[in-house]
Amino acid sequence: MQNFVLHTPTKILFGKNQIAGLAQQIPAKAHILITYGGGSVKKNGVLDQVYSALAGRNVQEFSGIEPNPTYETLMKAVELVRAENIDFLLAVGGGSVVDGTKFIAAAAHYTADRDPWHILKTVGREVTGAIPLGCVLTLPATGSESNIGAVITRKNSGDKQHFHSSYVQPKFAVLDPTVTYSLPPRQIANGVVDAFVHTIEQYLTYPVDAKVQDRFAEGLLLTLLEDGPRALAEPENYAVRANVMWSATLALNGLIGAGVPQDWATHMLGHELTAMHGLDHAQTLAIVLPALLVEKKTQKRAKLLQYAERVWGLRDGSEDSRIDAAIAATRAFFETMGVPTRLSDYQLDGSSIPALLDKLHQHGMTALGEHQDITLEVSQRIYQAAR
Amino acid sequence: MQNFVLHTPTKILFGKNQIAGLAQQIPAKAHILITYGGGSVKKNGVLDQVYSALAGRNVQEFSGIEPNPTYETLMKAVELVRAENIDFLLAVGGGSVVDGTKFIAAAAHYTADRDPWHILKTVGREVTGAIPLGCVLTLPATGSESNIGAVITRKNSGDKQHFHSSYVQPKFAVLDPTVTYSLPPRQIANGVVDAFVHTIEQYLTYPVDAKVQDRFAEGLLLTLLEDGPRALAEPENYAVRANVMWSATLALNGLIGAGVPQDWATHMLGHELTAMHGLDHAQTLAIVLPALLVEKKTQKRAKLLQYAERVWGLRDGSEDSRIDAAIAATRAFFETMGVPTRLSDYQLDGSSIPALLDKLHQHGMTALGEHQDITLEVSQRIYQAAR
């Protein structure tokens, strides 16, 4: 096991009717800005529940945070926060709203002489404070509700970049599985794939004899395999939605990645696909991961064999056949969830691969993966294999 | 899954040489009291490491906190804290030192007109503040380093009682597996049994379709089964000690118990054995648990079958035979760890059972377990079966 520091201070309020207890989590005199996306939280009644819970409190709102939240939109919220002296942010939505709100929180008080895009350029290293935030999660997927990371897109340049800062870790996260009942199947499917790949990024590397982390990761993967398809088939099965929601949070709160190597190349290659072609985040992961696992079979051999056995029950046949079967099963799982796994499924023929590699180069993504050996040349092979 | 609130704010600093970074975790101007037990942290050099890390800081010490820390000893520290205006407590030791330090933290500023034993009588409900504390853990076992609970013994009355308060949750816990190399085998064995039973208390109840919690618990149990005996056989195997240490912390930081029923009857029956006969805490758990599982076979049936299959690989034979085999294997595991599982192994013939039941009655422990159906009569049968 590698050395690690793990800090998971976000208070989790999980279950039915937890939104009602929201007000106790926010300082009594706070000037609160509720942030959200489009109209779904209005349609499904979540925003009404939030307003009821905050009755009598000093509340304003900012809406219109888009999927893959953009700097351009978020800077309008930053202006509002500064003008109105907002001192608590409440994100109501999925990972994009939470990520966007983290950026607002960090940008509002960022060094006056810097454009806040600098936060992304420096991956959050120079953030020295942020407005406190909490969230009401409506879409289990990104884990953003209880971690320090965020991914922001710049519309005018097509850049999709991430930053990390402990200052933007949410104070609390309300997770009520019933608010996910009304989500479109595509969003549930994306969330399950996203959580699955988050887990894989921290698990399918090389062994460091970290038995607990491995078994926790396998526990999340098995749960998502079992209950992901059921979440589509039985949208109002509370237990299933609860298991998916809790898995997605634990997949990226720091716990399973503490003390083990991490990969994240699938995410980096995927971000460029979203930024250039507008694919859903999870779609890009479903495209890149199988191709990456084939490419990195040698380096990931020991963990691929463990994954094949413990997650897919593959114990017979040669080692190579078990590894191939596990990768094929992973691809088939994404397809079962309704998320296609080839560029061609999205009407992309690979002609943009040189431009994607240029973007990776621009973003300094030239030595990715747990061994920093995914060079641009390797990334090119992965993109090509994903056609 | 049941509703839950989960808050795990203790920052974990895990690995080799983490003690060296201690000073950064404590406010610069703090007046620190280091608390510890006997001489082992002096002999093994841990106390020296702590003093080196805190060079130049304002530090005093209080030693002599015993296993099963007593109110009588701890009240001396409370006087010292009050007299010297201590404002940070650093526990250096195992669960007893951490538990004792939590009591000191809560008692030092407890309502002036109350004797702090009142904290135990009211299970911590009336604690409204505490001196902040951190810890350097030397013995993986109780999980106290990252939770809100503590168990305190009153010498003059033979009472062993617990309290809980979020105010005594450690700010940080330093977990360096190398400091456990010098522990006597009995303490390692006790720690493994303690962590194993903590996990069982939150797992072997009845199913609520909480797949992640179940798999995480099973992951801890499997790790302790594999690496517990190896921790005895290979005392300086870093990976093994690291896995045991991390398992013990995660067994009782709130995570695996969030959203599931919990039992804890084994602990309550065990506490009376320690208080009356001076048995090690883990010894009492090893005595009570197998007898309790036999007694509660019907109520725990579904989870016992899951435990038999997933933890012990028992898939063949009748359901009853698998359950019996799982309970027998659990007992055999404790014995393998060198912790005997019968009262008679400790020269106890059961003649104190009436007195033990009187103590349970005095402490209000008359409806224990996840169904609150372990009455004094049931407890009597369990004690008798454990002879």
From TrEMBL, chains A, B:
Domain Alcohol dehydrogenase iron-type/glycerol dehydrogenase GldA: 9-177
Entry superkingdom: Bacteria
Cross-referenced InterPro entries: ADH_Fe/GldA, ADH_Fe_C, ADH_Fe_CS, BDH-like
Annotated ranges, domain Fe-containing alcohol dehydrogenase-like C-terminal: 189-361
Cited SUPFAM superfamilies: Dehydroquinate synthase-like (SSF56796)
One example GO MF annotation: butanol dehydrogenase (NAD+) activity
Gene Ontology CC annotation, any one: cytosol
Keyword DNA-binding set for record: no
Keyword entries, A-Z: Oxidoreductase
Pfam families: ADH_Fe_C, Fe-ADH
Coiled coil segments of this chain: none
Protein's name in the database: Aldehyde reductase
Species this chain originates from: Chania multitudinisentens RB-25
Lineage of origin: Bacteria, Pseudomonadati, Pseudomonadota, Gammaproteobacteria, Enterobacterales
